[in-house]
Amino acid sequence: MTEEIRSKPSHSDNGHHPVRSQIRGVGYFSRIGPGIVTGAADDDPSGIGTYSQVGAQFGYRFLWAAPVLLPFAFAIQETCARIALVTGQGLARVIKRRMPNWVLILTVFLVALANTVNIAADLSSMAAVVAMFIPISQLFAVVIIALLVGAAEILIPYHQYARVLRWLCLSLLSYVAVLVVAKVDWHQVFTGLTHIDISWNKFDIAAIIAIAGTTISPYLFFWQAAEEFEESGQAPDTSQSHIQAMRGDVLVGMFSGVFVMFAIMTTTAATLNTKGITDITSPEQAAMALAPIAGNAAGIIFALGILGTGLLAVPVLAGSTAYAVSEAMGWRESLERKPSQAKQFYGVIAISMAIAVALNLVGINPMRSLVVAALLNGLTAPILMFIIWWLARDKQLLGEHASPWWSSLLVCVGAIAMAALPILWLFAPA
């Protein structure tokens, strides 16, 4: 029996994502596709905490990571999107079709674990920001935020929810605003961007692992693919015009995410590092530390940005887990279905959110959980990147849309580099 799907906006005949068919002109923001949401979700509160700590501790030294990581981030997200466009299926379902079962189980387990721990850290940071403005218990704020975000993701149809997510992307502008009001040494910024400066010690390599793992995160792979076939009504679209539009969309999204990384690292380097404040263990602490140095407005803008990006990233994390698990198990999955039509799918979202809340309630240090999440992302990402690289070169699967040489090279080199970093860390001196 055909499943009843909640109504979607009509799609034109020339592309499965008609709003993405045109990049330029008035109304651009209403036409952008899944790529911008994915790029914005990359800068979740835990990522903001990581970038803040790196900027505060190392100053401008690691700004080169922004231009270096951008092509790798774009290549892997473009590959995931292209696989979904051509097959009309999510990433886990394609892995299930083409890979041994143990590979699927391992990757889905690691992604689900890392995502849930990441949600816990994000909820904690968001609650701490709320507590900065409202006299409320942080644990109570965690529960309220989780309930609101979870209910919205479960009860609101995807095509309406996606519009909300796109508007939440504007919260990223808060970090550009902070960059404008901070007193930045642009000569040092240029030096940091153009000179790769790495010392052979565990601290520097750990910082690179943290930056790379936060920027190229496994949950984004699953979410990018899932959004592509959600927007399409799960109908493959292999037209060249749409492939090109998808690439433009993904590039804009990943550029915005990496640019915000640059803005946060530059701001904290210019304000905190220069004042000798080098130990920032959470994004809300960075917001409070910025206020007396860069002004109360900067601290408030930074804090509100954490809340906005958290509202964007938490449903992406939970949704990514639900898609991965449901595709692996063969369950019905879609944010366009009613809860009664995809009970297991929405159940995964609810369970993931509940476990994340429990991690906060039982007193597990949220920043330690952030470190664990970053570590899991860093270990999982290269494994998944190798799998995606292999799938994307499969001409039986993708035909003429198999990876071009530049994409295959970037994904492979990125996977090798991320896999090598933990090994280098083991041998590096303290």
What does this structure look like?
This protein is mainly alpha-helical. The chain has one domain (32-427): Amino acid/polyamine transporter I (Up-down Bundle), CATH 1.20.1740. Helix content is 74%, strand content 0%. The protein has helices at 28-31, 34-41, 45-58, 65-87, 91-98, 101-133, 138-155, 158-168, 173-181, 186-194, 202-215, 218-232, 240-271, 283-294, 296-329, 343-361, 366-392, 395-398, 405-427. Helix 15 (296-329) packs across helix 16 (343-361).
Key terms:
430 residues, mainly alpha, globular
- Tell me the name of the CATH class: Mainly Alpha
Integer count of domains: 1
- The CATH superfamily is Amino acid/polyamine transporter I
Main beta-sheet strand count, sense and barrel state: none
Structural class by secondary-structure content: mainly alpha
What's the overall average pLDDT, rounded?
81
Q: What is the chain-wise order of helices and strands?
A: HHHHHHHHHHHHHHHHHHH
Question: Looking at CATH, which topology would you report?
Answer: Amino acid/polyamine transporter I
Radius of gyration: 20 Å
Q: State the separation between the terminal residues, measured CA to CA.
A: 62 Å
Helix content: over 70%
Uncertain runs are 1-31
Give me the number of helical elements: 19
Overall geometry comes to globular
Number of strands: 0
**Share of β-strand residues:** under 5%
* Assigned CATH architecture: Up-down Bundle
